Amino acid sequence: MRLTAIIAARNEALYINRCCQHLAAQGIEFAVIDNGSTDDTRAIVESFKGRGLRCVVDHPYPDFYDWTGLLERKEQLARELDSDWFMHLDADEIPEPPQRNQSLISGLTAADSEGYTAVNFDEFVFIPATADERHEGGDYVQSMCRYFFFEPCKNRLIRAWRSAPDIELSSSGGHAATFSNRRIYPQNFVLRHYITLSMDHLLRKYLGERTYAAAEVAKGWHSWRPRLADELVRVPPDEELYDIRTDQGWNRSRPCAKHLFLT
Fold this sequence. Notes:
Elements: E1 3-9, H1 16-25, E2 29-34, H2 41-46, E3 53-58, H3 67-80, E4 85-90, E5 93-96, H4 104-113, E6 118-126, H5 140-143, E7 146-150, E8 158-162, E9 189-193, H6 199-208, H7 214-218, E10 242-243
Parallel strand pairs: 1-2, 1-4, 2-3, 6-9
Antiparallel strand pairs: 4-8, 5-9, 6-7, 6-8, 7-10
C-alpha cells in the first residue's frame, strides 16, 4: 500500500514539522504545495527529503487565500503522482486509523481489500482548556489534551481515496473527494484537528493572517472565519470538553454542529 498525503501550506512553521513527523513515522509519503510561505515552512518541509517527502511544488500567493486554486492543484498532483491511495490533509491535522492499535496504512489496506475506494474521517478538535494555555513551539500533540467531537453532518470529511483519474475536491470546498465508482468505507477514521495553539493564536491565524476570496465566502465557504473577532471567541467550560488522557476511546456521545470556542 502506497499512501500519499497532499498538503497545502502557507506560513505553517508552527505545525508542518509535527505533521510531517507523524506521516513519516507511519510510512506515509507526502507532497507539499508551498503557497508563497515567508517563514521557515519551506526549509522545514525540505528537511524531510529521504524521510517521506515526495515533492514540494509552488503555488504563488495572490494576496488572498486561494482555496479553490489550492484544491485544484491538489487534484492535479493526485492525477500525476504514482500512489495507491491519496489523502487531502492540512498542516494542523493528524490523521489516525479507526483502531488505536492499527497503523493508518493497515487501516486503509483493510478498507481497500474489501473493495472500498474512499474513507470518511471523524473530526476531533483540540483546543486550549484555559485562556492562558499556550502550545506554540512545543509538541502540541502530546501537550493538548482537551477536545470536542465536531460533526455538523454525516460523511463530512471524505478525505482519503483510492487513486482515480477523475478525482475532484474543489466543488465541496475540500470536504469530499468525488470520483467515479466511489464506495465509502463504513468505519470512519480519525482526524485530530489542532485548529489553534492558544486563544491569541486563533485570532492571529484567522483574523490577522488571511484574506478570503469574496466568491468563496459567497458560496458559504470558510464559515465563521471571515467574521472572526475577539468578542466571538470563548474558552468552553470543562464540562463541554473531553479529555484524551481519561477517555477509553474517542468520545462521540455529544456531536457538535458548532465549534465550541465560538460564542
